[in-house]
Amino acid sequence: MKHSNSFSRPDKRATDQLRSIQFETGIAPHALGSVLVSFGATRIICAASVDNRVPGWMRAQGVEGGWMTAEYSMLPYSTLERKTRDISRGKSDGRTIEIQRLIGRALRAVFDLKKFSGKTLWLDCDVLQADGGTRTASITGAYVAAQIAIGKLMDGGQLTENPFSNSVAAVSVGIYQDTPVLDLNYLEDKDASVDANIVMTGDDQYVEVQSSGEESTFSHKQLEELLTLGTKGIHQITLLQERAIREGLS
User: Could you tell me the pTM of the whole model?
Assistant: First the structure.
């Protein structure tokens, strides 16, 4: 696809450039593993906690191994207009349920539950500030928090081997002003004609690809361009995750 010379992203990034990504580990001292992950102005606390029991349905059905699950929420002040807490409405909205299921699926794809017998790993992702890409940042940060928690369990002799078989990270891509771009902020996301979320392992295997036209269509070639952008972004994010995990365990 040829791009117009006049094309410009709202924050002047190159089409294949990630926002500034930061990981601040140890942000929640009472969690076994935690990180404040920032993708530009999107900021999310991801925390990993461990219960020494499995859900009731696993016990009732005699399912072996352990479990991993996620909860996601946007704090009331995370968006321009105050967002009502789920507890005030008496139920979670559909978007919240979809995202927390996505986070759980993404991490379970690279986690051997049989090596986590009798335990549940809880992943809590709380959005402090939303500027696009909260679900992809949550997955990326949750993996870091989970690996820190697992490392501490291994150091304490509660696990003999790491249940993670691979890393996992996620990033958004989309078509903005007829141009494929990487890691959309809110201004790009709301005006994108195509929006996609790419979840991948550290060895380039896809875990999930969510892609849709926003009252628009897209071609096979455009999808390939988006996947290529996403793969490049994941490679860079994976290196940052590895560094953050080392810092969190040091």
Answer: 0.92
pLDDT digits 0-9 by tens, 121-149: 999 999 999 999 999 999 999 999 999 99
> Which of the listed CATH numbers 3.40.50.2300, 3.40.50.720, 3.30.565.10, 3.30.230.70 matches domain 21-249?
3.30.230.70
| Complete edge-to-edge strand list for the sheet that includes strand 21-25 | 21-25, 33-39, 42-51, 120-129, 67-74
Average pLDDT score over residue span 13-19: 97
Place of tokens 């996609």: 196
Strands (E), the chain: 21-25, 33-39, 42-51, 67-74, 120-129, 168-176, 179-182, 194-201, 206-213
User: Is there a contact between 72 and 99 (Cβ–Cβ < 8 Å)?
Assistant: yes
Domain boundaries, the chain: 21-249
Question: Which residue, among 171, 173, 177, has the nearest Cα to 193 in the 3D structure?
Answer: 177
